[in-house]
Design brief:
6 strands; mainly alpha
């Protein structure tokens, strides 16, 4: 397992930057923002910045060719959260971009609406593909220049974090129900789902402990 990023000033700024992109909220689409920050830290600590520039350049070339000549575009990950092209397209195709992160739901003021009606509204607002296999397509087809430009929207961190939260929202709900009092196991499940392997989930969990709960690590070191 790669060495974890240290709590340096640079990395602490990176951690805070992800929080600010989520308006410093505690949750986003049902996901703990600190969980999303942990995934963000993985993708930004072990990948040189010039890799991302290469990814955007390749996407520019293949995306233009795919749009103009209606060719399939090979799927890979782009942006600060390393989101797959199918994930980005599904986010927009299901209308999940109707507002900034966490601002889609406008709850009625009537007291009665604070119960079942508002819950139904929130569920309707977070649409999700019927088959999660759509996230793992080997290639995508772009319907036009609008979708081509949407792929580059993840260059904006706030949008990238919102798509990440949407992508993990179902896993977050399931893991919270399965491990109601074990946030570390919830995050492990999210990381495993997103990274496709348990080692990714374990790394996300270790980063979360290190940056979100450093006092816990310090106490364990003192006991040791």
């Amino acid at each position: 397992m790669p060495k974890l990023p240290e709590r340096t000033e640079k990395n602490l700024r990176l951690w805070e930057r992800a929080s600010m992109a989520c308006d410093q909220k505690e949750t986003l689409r049902g996901c703990k923002v600190s969980f999303l920050q942990s995934v963000f830290m993985i993708e930004n600590s072990f990948r040189p910045r010039y890799f991302r520039l290469c990814e955007y350049g390749a996407l520019l070339a293949t995306g233009l060719l795919g749009t103009v000549f209606r060719l399939p575009v090979r799927s890979w990950t782009v942006g600060p959260c390393q989101l797959g092209l199918p994930t980005i397209l599904e986010y927009y195709r299901l209308g999940q971009d109707a507002g900034e992160a966490g601002e889609r739901a406008v709850l009625p003021e009537h007291p009665k609406a604070q119960g079942e009606d508002s819950l139904q509204e929130e569920q309707a607002e977070t649409a999700f593909p019927k088959d999660s296999a759509v996230f793992h397509q080997p290639s995508v087809r772009l319907s036009g220049f609008k979708e081509f430009l949407q792929l580059f929207s993840v260059m904006r961190l706030s949008r990238s974090m919102d798509i990440l939260a949407w992508r993990l929202s179902q896993t977050a709900a399931d893991s919270k129900e399965k491990y109601p009092d074990r946030p570390n196991l919830q995050l492990r499940a999210l990381g495993t789902e997103f990274g496709g392997r348990l080692s990714y989930g374990l790394m996300a969990e270790r980063i979360w402990r290190k940056f979100a709960h450093p006092e816990e690590i310090q106490n364990n070191e003192k006991k040791g």
